[in-house]
Amino acid sequence: MKEKLLELLKNSYAPYSNFPVAAVVVTKDGREFSGVNVEDASTRAGTCAERTAIFSAIAAGVKKGEFKEVNVMVSSGEIGTPCFVCRQMILEVFDKDAIVRCWALDGRYREFTVDELCPY
User: Fold this and answer.
1) For the chain, is the Cβ count within 10 Å smaller at the N or the C terminus?
2) Active site residue 50
């Protein structure tokens, strides 16, 4: 998964924040959907990598409860976690025991369940 995320980071469009983010959503039946953050000058009209991946899965017919995990990598070299807007989307379509795996560029990662990352 690390290599997929590293490759995806190259597709991010982040000219304002200079903070590329990549995400891969995996469904319970093994399908994978990719996403990157996409910015624009207004900042509010862009979208995060996690939601891009989730929206792609939903557009392909994936339903609530069919998501297994989401993997996220940020370009800073550190382990980053989804923003609160993404956490809300994750909470709405993933089961509470689904995995949120947050990767660093060097392959380190932290793993949370949705319930741990989004307790309220």
Assistant:
1) C
2) yes
